Amino acid sequence: MTIQEIQDEIVDEFSMFDDWMQRYEYMIDLGKSLPLIDENLKKEENLIKGCQSKVWVHGEMQADKLVFTADSDAIITKGIIAILIRAFSNQHPAAIINASTDFIDEIGLKEHLSPTRANGLVSMIKQLKLYAIAYQTQLN
Amino acid sequence: MLDIQKIRKDFPILNREVNGKPLIYFDNAATSQTPQQVIDCITDYYTNYNANIHRGVHTLSQEATDAYEEARIKIQKHFNAAKPYEMILTSGTTDSINLVANGFASLLKKGDEIIVSALEHHSNIVPWQMLCEHTGAHLKVIPMFESGQLDMDAYTALLNERTKLVFCNHVSNALGVINPIEFIIEKAHEVGAAVLIDGAQASPHIKADVQALNVDFYVASAHKICGPTGVGLLYGKEEWLTKLPPYRGGGEMIDQVTFEKTTYAGLPHKFEAGTPNICGVIAFGAALDYMNDIGFEAIAAYENELLEYATEKLLAIGDVTIYGSGAKTAVISFNIENIHPYDIGTIVDKLGIAVRTGHHCAQPIMDFYKIPGTVRASFSFYNTKEEIDSFIEATKKAKMMLS
């Protein structure tokens, strides 16, 4: 599936929820089911600065696709990461660089997009895109 | 007895909704809300007598100058300083601390020592680290116990003839613990050291008497005492303020200026360069009037009642750890086992409740407890037990969702 198709699927899933509590319960479940990052990748250089909770993100190329793993010590943040990984992981770097992030707004998480928001969703997206740019440069 | 419903009517912001729920504001330790009386004072200033002070001969300037200096006297009387000019008006607590730190740069020499407490806010650590780097002085730290109380035996052992300055907050912002500043001041004076007390967290709850405390410097911010942001005070004993050099150069702080030499104005103008926050200072005076009309003893008694009520209810939820015990202001800093404070803060915000989460600009305290941060609920005299009940229900819901 393309990034856009995955994002549409996520938007569809979230449209079934009536209120914020259901959305958050779903995100918390996603957070709990996020495959854990390899313990030795939880190192300083993988830590995203500017988050109130700790967030580690690691990206590596598998064949021609960029695969992300990540973790956080806060469960809601982990849920948000799980959504981002589902949308952006296992894709070509060029597709990740060009991908839109509008679906975040559509699933009712716009409040987390504010640059001052302590969970640093913006920093996370930036980090994923930076990985993609770095690997795309290598491919070129 | 306070008439809380009448008091609540003074705070228009308490009528608003957040996420479709009535706002419950429990982040008072970060900033207090503003009563209509203070808002009216600000409007009145800009509507009727906005002018620059101390310079103009025209009527508006005279009126603004009078109101500004009257506010200084209100602030002086509130903290019981001996003289109005011992009350320097600044942009806030951080500004006040930096003013003193900057002044001590010329008084310290290599090998001198500064003592700070383990309970400090970052704004109370960083200026002293910068000062030590600059002067070659050493920074010593008063350790804390698990209870959040400072170790006074260790403090006494740190003091010696090289100690030049002791710095401590009156009340810890992260835990709400009230520190034994009377003892700290007395012991520091025995070795000839000056003491600077940060009253930012204490001032909404405790009316400090700087003469009775015999403290050398005391600092606080208006925005935590129902006043506006961007205004604070530095109380300094006259002998100390005279010793410290000016902080910033500019208008107002000079006596005579030629290109060869400038002589400085006397106190307090020596430390008040440029156009001050005139409206803010006048509104700070109005805020102190408002608080004093209600009465600090009544405020403290009521807030203590809220603290006890909330503490008991919160502990009853189970798996709750509260950090800091003993004498406290109305602050509860807590965690629920295996749940990140950020997650709790996010859920209770969705329910219209404002609490603080994180390290509260006091990372050394969080490192001490080996935690990423806490949830901090801080109460004010306009809060109610019904609001605490809603907060407890929200916290239970968060616990259920997050466990």
Structural features, described:
- The complex is a heterodimer of chains A (140) and B (403).
- By secondary structure, chain A is mostly helical.
- Chain A has one domain: Sufe protein. Chain: A (Alpha-Beta Complex).
- Chain A is 49% helix and 11% strand.
- Chain A has 6 helices and 2 strands; from the N terminus they run ααββαααα.
- In chain A, a hairpin with a 2-residue loop joins strand 1 and strand 2.
- In chain A, 34% of the residues are buried.
- Chain B is of the alpha/beta class and 403 residues long.
- Chain B folds into 2 domains: 132 residues, Aspartate Aminotransferase, domain 1; 243 residues, Type I PLP-dependent aspartate aminotransferase-like (Major domain) (Aspartate Aminotransferase, domain 2), CATH 3.40.640.
- Chain B is built from 14 helices and 17 strands.
- In chain B, strands 4-10-9-8-7-5-6 form a 7-stranded mixed sheet, with helices on both faces. In chain B, strands 13-14-17-16 form a 4-stranded antiparallel sheet, with helices on one face.
- In chain B, strand 8, helix 8 and strand 9 form a beta-alpha-beta unit.
- The relative contact order of chain B is 0.16.
- The mean pLDDT of chain B is 94.
- At the A-B interface, helix 2 and helix 3 of A face helix 12 of B.
Architecture blueprint of SSEs:
The complex is a heterodimer of chains A (140) and B (403).
Chain A: H1 3-14, H2 20-33, E1 55-62, E2 65-72, H3 75-88, H4 93-98, H5 103-106, H6 121-139
Antiparallel strand pairs in A: 1-2
Helix pairs in contact in A: 1-3, 2-3, 3-6
Chain B: H1 4-9, E1 17-18, E2 21-22, E3 24-25, H2 36-49, H3 59-78, E4 87-90, H4 93-104, E5 113-117, H5 126-135, E6 138-142, H6 152-158, E7 163-169, H7 181-190, E8 194-198, H8 210-213, E9 217-221, E10 232-236, H9 238-243, E11 254-257, E12 262-264, H10 278-294, H11 296-317, E13 320-323, E14 331-336, H12 341-350, E15 353-354, E16 356-358, H13 363-369, E17 374-378, H14 385-402
Parallel strand pairs in B: 3-15, 5-6, 5-7, 7-8, 8-9
Antiparallel strand pairs in B: 1-2, 4-10, 9-10, 11-12, 13-14, 14-17, 16-17
Helix pairs in contact in B: 2-10, 3-10, 11-14, 12-14
